Amino acid sequence: MSKQEANIYEIAKEAGVSIATVSRVMNHSTSVSEKSRKRVMDAVKLLNYVPNSTARSLSTSQSMSIGVVVPDIDNPFFSKILQGVTLLAEEHGYQVLLYNTDESVEKEQKVLRSMREHRLRGIVITPVSEHSKETLVQLRSFAERSIPVVLLDRELDDPCFDRVVTEDEDGVYRAVRSLIQGGHRRIAVITGPQQSRTGKERFRGYERAMEEFRVPMPREYIRYGDYRMQCAYEEAKALCQLPQPPTAIFSSNNMTTYGCLKAISELGLRLGEDISLIGFDDIDALNWLNYNVSVVCRDVKEMGRRAMGLLLDCFDRETPAEEGHREVLPAELILRGSERYGHDL
Amino acid sequence: MSKQEANIYEIAKEAGVSIATVSRVMNHSTSVSEKSRKRVMDAVKLLNYVPNSTARSLSTSQSMSIGVVVPDIDNPFFSKILQGVTLLAEEHGYQVLLYNTDESVEKEQKVLRSMREHRLRGIVITPVSEHSKETLVQLRSFAERSIPVVLLDRELDDPCFDRVVTEDEDGVYRAVRSLIQGGHRRIAVITGPQQSRTGKERFRGYERAMEEFRVPMPREYIRYGDYRMQCAYEEAKALCQLPQPPTAIFSSNNMTTYGCLKAISELGLRLGEDISLIGFDDIDALNWLNYNVSVVCRDVKEMGRRAMGLLLDCFDRETPAEEGHREVLPAELILRGSERYGHDL
DNA sequence: GTGAAAGCGCTAACAG
DNA sequence: CTGTTAGCGCTTTCAC
Q1: What number of other Cβ atoms are within 10 A of residue A7's Cβ?
Q2: A7–chain B Cβ distance below 8 A for any pair
């Protein structure tokens, strides 16, 4: 009862040619007589034939699938990344295999292992940790097997991989500088994980600005976060309840910004009046709500595109490059009002 | 220079057995002597062997990949769906191929066509339109080829597919009823697309409550939206600026709720005071911001899990069911304050 | 320009 | 328990 997909033999038979000829016309390859081409195309249409990509992959020993590994699908940042990657991938006929690691190193291990079974053509990954030895080994082994790996946003201690990152430090530096120049002197920061490039770099941007303008950085103004809402919320709340609270907070990622806003709202503070805030990464929802939160941001979808772009470059290139290419996108400072030094401060 | 993946022959040779034996131990299948098993395992470890799933798929003519087709990756609703699907998929060793249709019927066509090349094991899809004949034909052809299809949230005019939906109508009914019982008499709605099940059903819930309690429904209180922020924003603004504005609005999905909130905020209205609102689908961000928006919601991640679950059921079942199974999840009404009939109304 | 045939790496009878 | 062998559907020499 249930239909079968036609295969190349049936097409050959229907068209009265050999399977080689069918293969040729399907691949727009070497010259085929107009007559044969037509007969094949007719058969294809008649039998509604679609070549089996699995067989093709096996035969050519290379697939048209790429693996994309994200630590948290639910974070809008990664949704946007995914959007960018899939867009370019589809344009070029590549399939996207999605893997979610839930920020767990163990899960990342499992995912990477399972990826090896599928002879992927390339990999885009935001590693859970920048210091997981196992992940590094796994990824390196992909690279050794000529499966290009591009790191996204987070990096690893190995120059062999391509990577797309942003000017985090500089962006944050400019943000904090603008706070200082706006009159703030008590500026706190809620950092990201200090084991990650982004965490370190964003913190460094803060430090640099503060040092350059000789603004004191009391220990209690430096709060270590983990890029998660809950932790940021607690730290922000603690900050605001300090005897000498900061007049401004820099929050190191989108979730951290949410945490700050939650704390601010719960304490009944007015943003840009009682407390100022600049966050890293823009948040669509806040703009829709007219929140006017100032941010350091980058074109996230474009980051995804670039990552896929680097992969495509690798595919084109015959010899794998010795050293990975590091693509750095700009970070933009967008001031919307939440950075203002309030009248009441 | 670049390493090769070992194949089954190399393992067989290294272990001094035949490839059949290697295959057997890799598949935990029929009895193999402890001695052989050990020798194979040693070889596997030594050569770091991972079976090639492409070859396996070709040989068994069935893959371990499922396709998930969403209309908008960037919408948190679908991020959560994806989360649910991938979670269960990974648990059962299935790969997830991600396809984004960007709410475009044309793109959906392309995607579906490209999916046929990959002999997928099953498909989870939220179709762009419930009336696209082409999509229906394509999906039916998958089903005919024993590739189960489960529809998610949106439906199609063919009972043959499995589907997971929610009690949208009833949920909305209860929401609107609670508005009425709270004292509202001027209740507007911003609907979803009326070609979709969810759009129709949610509107029907509104109507039912209004009719049952004999609350008048002036034409200008019924606004047709498209589940998008922009449109909802405009409609909400228009509603609020009516000579006789509604005291409450029901918004038919998460983006619509954002649109309403944007309008409300721009007009300087106070939620739950000057205007009340209940939305369909919960929005994490709003809760973090202490927005207290009341909603009709469902466990979205669970919807994704169920969809994958239905797929797994189909895989287990030998004979494809005649009629699809329709899984209906409950919708819950969560009142947080934004539904209150304000003192000033 | 076209066909025959040898793989790609693995599974699954079928004999032993 | 284990090896031999015939596919799975397609690509790709290599002759003709």
Answers
A1: 15
A2: no
Per-residue pLDDT reduced to its tens digit, A291-337: 999 999 999 999 999 999 999 999 988 777 778 899 999 999 999 99
Put simply, whether A98 touches B (Cβ < 8 Å) is: yes
Report how far residue B303's alpha carbon sits from residue B328's, in angstroms, rounded to the nearest whole number: 9
Angle at B80 between CA B78 and CA B86, to 5 degrees: 100
Between CA B122 and CA B82 the distance in angstroms is: 15
Residue pair A207/A194 in contact by the 8 Å Cβ criterion: no
**In chain A, which residue's Cα lies nearest the Cα of B232?**
A288
Per-residue b/e over A177-190, b at no fewer than 16 CB within 10 Å? bbbbeeebebbbbb
| Rounded CA separation A224/A228 (Å) | 11
Q: Is B50 an 8 Å CB contact of chain A?
A: yes
E strands, B107-208, in order: 122-125, 149-152, 162-166, 187-191
φ/ψ of residue B260, rounded to 5: -65, -45
Å separating the CA of residue B25 from the C1' of nucleotide D3:
15
Placement of tokens 């990152």 in the chain: A165
pLDDT band at B110 (very low <50, low <70, confident <90, very high): very high
> Which strand C bases fall within 7 angstroms of a protein CB?
1-5, 7-13
Half-sphere exposure at residue A153, Cβ-oriented, CA atoms within 13 angstroms: 27
On whether the CB atoms of residues B65 and B97 are closer than 8 A, the answer is yes
Out of A48, A98, A265, name the one closest to residue B98 (CB).
A98
Q: Which residue of A has its CA nearest to B92?
A: A114
Does at least one atom of strand D sit less than 7 Å from the CB of B61?
A: yes
pLDDT tens digits for range A97-149: 999 999 999 999 999 999 999 989 999 999 999 889 999 999 999 998 989 99
B21 CA – D5 C1', rounded, Å? 14
Task: Name the one residue in this structure whose structure tokens are 């044309």.
Answer: B106
Question: Over the Cα atoms of chain B, what is R_g?
Answer: 26
Identity of the residue in A74, A117, A320 whose CB atom sits nearest the CB atom of B79: A74
